[in-house]
Amino acid sequence: MIADISFALIRAYATAWMRRHCRVLLFGQEQLESLPRGRRVYVVLNHSTSYDAVALFHLSANRFGIVMDREAFQVPVIGRLLTAAQFIALDKRVSEDAVQRAVAAVRAGTPLLVSLTEGHTAIGRPGYERPRSGGKRIAHLAGADIFPVFVMIEEGRRRTRSFRGREGSTEIFTTFQDTLYFVSFLPPIPASSFLPEQTLESYRAVAEELQKQADRERERFTRMLSEKRELYEGIRRRGGSSVRVTW
């Protein structure tokens, strides 16, 4: 009950914010129904800005879990909401606890969102684009299907901002204004495709293939915006989305 209320508050903020800043366009929704409903892990393939999670909260018809860097849970008020919503804090130095909590959540029926790459990709710091295998491991251990999700904003619409951290450090994040925000659901990887025994190398192989899918989607949307410029120029860059996604 508390988790549902907390998620609803987060979603309400996300919806208000997205409606002021962008228009969301969804692609590949049929992929969400291409497998029977069951245990699911959604792997977000890339970071368009620091507000990608906000976009996905806005689109949600139902509550999901999410694995987030533990720093977010240390922010006053927001951290309490994230904890109450039963989101999972990730400490990269000791990740096993987060993995086991994520597996338990998925087995209990909660759809889970996991990032393929680290969040610093969203704030322009190079070296964080390497795909991680944690989401694949969670899906395998939980017996879940993997659903890849690609996100993207228009070129030139990213805005860099900063704030003073709790210990005096300068923290950088990115946002956007008046843009199209693309969300694309790619073909899922069924749980049945995983072998009973998986190695770190096999997890990494899946992660690398997902990274290639992200690169192909980026090229596809970039080309689409260029070739169909007149079609997309007439779309209002505010209003969010009226469509809701059942995870």
Task: Please outline the helices and strands.
Blueprint: H1 2-21, E1 22-27, E2 40-44, H2 52-59, E3 65-69, H3 78-84, E4 88-90, H4 96-107, E5 112-115, H5 134-142, E6 145-153, E7 158-164, E8 170-176, E9 179-185, H6 200-227, H7 229-233
Parallel strand pairs: 1-9, 2-5, 2-6, 3-4, 3-5
Antiparallel strand pairs: 6-9, 7-8
Helix pairs in contact: 1-2, 1-3, 4-5
User: Helix amount, in percent?
Assistant: 25-40%
DSSP strand tally: 9
* Full CATH superfamily name: Glycerol-3-phosphate (1)-acyltransferase
Categorize the overall geometry. Answer: globular
| Average pLDDT over all residues | 91
**CATH secondary-structure class:** Alpha Beta
Separation of the first and last Cα atoms? 19 Å
Measured by DSSP, the beta-strand proportion falls in 15-25%
Profile the largest sheet: 7 strands, mixed
CATH architecture, by name, is 3-Layer(aba) Sandwich
Number of domains: 1
Q: Total helix count?
A: 7
Q: What name does the CATH topology carry? A: Glycerol-3-phosphate (1)-acyltransferase
* Rg measurement, Å: 18 Å
What is the N-to-C succession of helices and strands?
HEEHEHEHEHEEEEHH
Please list the strands of the largest sheet in the order they lie side by side: 1-9-6-2-5-3-4
Alpha-beta content class? alpha/beta
Instruction: Flag low-confidence runs.
Output: none
